[in-house]
Amino acid sequence: MKGHDAMTIEPRLIVTGREADGTSVFVTDEPADPTTIAAFPGTFYLMWGTDDGGTTVGTEPQEPKVFPFFPGPGGTRALFLRFAPHSSEPAGDPEAIAAEGAEKLPGLLDVFEPDNPGMHTTDSIDYGICLEGELHLELDDGKEVKLVPGTLVVQQGTRHAWHNKSDTPALMCYVLIGAGR
């Protein structure tokens, strides 16, 4: 596949922690698990998240909180999302597609507008960093901007959609911070 060679980023998760005596240690170092659903043309790598309302650090080990997909106020999520080339609408039985999405990525599809493919609004501040390829961010009235590697988008709870119009995958890293509206 063009542009998808040995230089392609393979998401990896490294987590640190502390022993009871306070010594810093590596808790996790592993490749990220890919997740795909028919409702979305791409691959999700759910990396880490924290509980709503804020979090603390110390010697108690933290477990990742990745569901629901979008955090509530004070919660966070970190993920990679590789958008397929020429991302298009899913084909197949809409009920089966929705059920698979609800099972594998609970909460994701709830924010999407049924009559405006791809458009959605979340109650979060999202930092989106383009790492590979190019992606278009669409806002109201069809206004768009093209993202290339090195671009950071700060998405402040606005209505938007993402489109890969190119022949190669596009990889984004997102950090979502749950917010009140």
Automatic annotation (TrEMBL):
Cupin type-2 domain ranges (all copies): 119-172
Recorded coiled-coil stretches: none
Tree of life domain: Bacteria
Protein name: Cupin domain
Organism: Actinoallomurus bryophytorum
